[in-house]
Amino acid sequence: MAQRLAKHWCLSAIRSPLQVISFPALQLHVSGTAMRADQKDFENAVTRVKLLKDPGNEMKLKLYALYKQATEGPCNVPKPGVFNLINKAKWDAWNALGSLPKETARQNYVDLVSSLSSSSASSSQVKPGADKEQQGSENLVVTSENGITKIMLNRPTKKNAITTQMYQEIILALKAASKDDSTITVLTGNGDYYCSGNDLSNFTDVLSGEIEEKVKSIAILLRDFVDCFIDFPKPLIAVVNGPAVGISVTLLGLFDAVYASDRATFHTPFSQLGQSPEGCSSYIFPKMMGPAKAKEMLIFGKKLTAGEACAQGLVTEVFPDSTFQTEVWTRLKAYSKLPPNAMRISKQIIRNMEKEKLHAVNAEEVSVLQERWLSDECINAVMNFLSKRAKL
Ligand SMILES: CCCC/C=C/CC(=O)SCCNC(=O)CCNC(=O)[C@H](O)C(C)(C)COP(=O)(O)OP(=O)(O)OC[C@H]1O[C@@H](n2cnc3c(N)ncnc32)[C@H](O)[C@@H]1OP(=O)(O)O
User: Fold this and answer.
1) Ligand 1 atom at minimum distance from 164 CA
2) Dihedral sign for Cα atoms in the order 214, 219, 224, 225
3) How many Å lie between the centroid of ligand 1 and the Cα of residue 210?
4) How many secondary structure helices (H) and strands (E) does the chain include?
5) Range list of β-strands (E), the chain
């Protein structure tokens, strides 16, 4: 089954064969290689590459070619047929490296990944300063105004599904918000959805390496991501502007207030996806709503309306969609004027009772999920979703 997914990954790594077919032969020599990359640096780069924002087909081909050259040496496999566009483009890129020594390819690969990592990190750095600050990236818009830092998921055409790049950007945004001069922090979505959860193609978009490694790097990312919510020191408020799915629902238990439009729904279809709960929901939901209701959501995937979620304690208050934004932001502006230290201390005293437990729950949930992601049930469900939407 792992092989089936790996094959699917290869297909999804290059989505537009016509675009890559005209890609010129390349002989890549990255300069500035004062330090030689050892095998460990190379393995780290292979892990890091999976967490990068999609660098585009051209860069993927460069990375692919260098990886192959570094691990297998010069290309000596038969050239794929002319209609096998994707594999031919990959073969051309690899073959173009000629007899470049393995060590040089390894070094070039490490340098290239470093340059990609630093450019993608700097694009999502949060800068201190002006009152209305616009930060983040295309898919995550971070603004700070009137004592409120707003982190907005901005991928409305994909229902704000969270990519690996976005997980990293949210971590950076939360870390910056915890230190900036705002009083409260808000997470919301742009468009008709709050968030459709984990982007299911996070599991498929890889170039090389083993599926187990990919899953391991996603597990580390998920654990760091949820840890940030557990440790966030200021009041954190979710403005749930529309339906919420998966991790965007489970995380709500770690917020200090959840305001929802009456259009919002709350859905955790983990069993349907061959997965298991995360975001500390396996611990918080039963405590919050009682085991019976929690199990209906987390085991059977029952979707709740906003009213039901409010009755179960997951949502603080529901507003009519027509007045949702006005009413909620008026409320938030008032909260942002409350004494910040008092709010932080009150949050701290509540959270500190449970912090250690929450970190342990997070670690356990992620370790279970790591195994689930390699299961037939999960792989089939993800492939089923993606294949229905495949554009190749
Ligand atoms: C670090 C790893 C953490 C892992 C843990 C997290 C667990 C989870 O979050 S599990 C939950 C995962 N989410 C889902 O299963 C939802 C999948 N999506 C859907 O079921 C439907 O898309 C949805 C009900 C949200 C909306 O349905 P429609 O209104 O009919 O819209 P479309 O299906 O046409 O969607 C529009 C567009 O968005 C893309 N999309 C939506 N959700 C996702 C997603 N989660 N991942 C990737 N892509 C998503 C969908 O494919 C459509 O794209 P195009 O086909 O390109 O238009």
Assistant:
1) 1
2) positive
3) 25
4) 16, 10
5) 133-136, 140-145, 148-153, 184-189, 236-240, 244-245, 257-261, 265-267, 304-305, 317-319
Q: Which atom of ligand 1 is nearest to the CA of 198?
A: 9
377 CA to centre of own chain: 22
Which residues in the chain are classed under CATH 3.90.226.10? 140-391
Counting Cβ atoms within 10 Å, is residue 313 exposed (0-12), middle (13-18) or buried (19+)?
middle
Per-residue pLDDT of the chain (392 residues; tens, 9 = 90+): 445 444 443 334 333 322 222 222 222 222 333 356 788 888 888 877 877 777 877 888 899 999 999 999 999 999 887 656 678 788 989 999 999 999 999 999 988 988 887 666 544 443 433 456 666 689 999 999 999 999 999 999 999 999 999 999 999 999 999 999 999 999 999 999 999 999 998 877 654 457 888 899 999 999 999 999 999 999 999 999 999 999 999 999 999 999 999 999 999 999 999 999 999 999 999 999 999 999 999 999 999 999 999 999 999 999 999 999 999 999 999 999 999 999 999 999 999 999 999 999 999 999 999 999 999 999 899 888 888 776 54
- For the 39-120 domain, the top CATH level (class) is mainly alpha
CA 79 to centroid of chain Cα atoms = 36
Which CATH fold would you assign to the domain 140-391?
Answer: 2-enoyl-CoA Hydratase; Chain A, domain 1 (3.90.226)
Give the C-alpha separation, 149 to 199, whole Å: 24
pTM reported for the whole predicted model: 0.73
* Ligand 1 binding site (Cβ under 6 Å of any ligand atom): 158-159, 161, 167, 196-202, 218, 221-222, 245-247, 269, 273, 275, 278, 385, 389
Query: Which residue has its alpha carbon closest to ligand 1 atom 35?
Result: 158
Nearest CA to 105 among 64, 153, 140, 76? Answer: 64
How far apart are the CA of 158 and the centre of ligand 1, in A?
7
Query: Which of 196, 245, 276 has the most ligand 1 atoms within 8 A of CB, as the residue to mutate?
Result: 196
Distance 350 CA to ligand 1 centre (A): 34
What is the token pair recorded at 74?
A: 């010069």
Domain with CATH 1.20.80.10 in the chain: 39-120
**What H or E segment, with its residue span, contains residue 330?**
helix 324-336
Residue located nearest, by CA, to atom 49 of ligand 1? 158
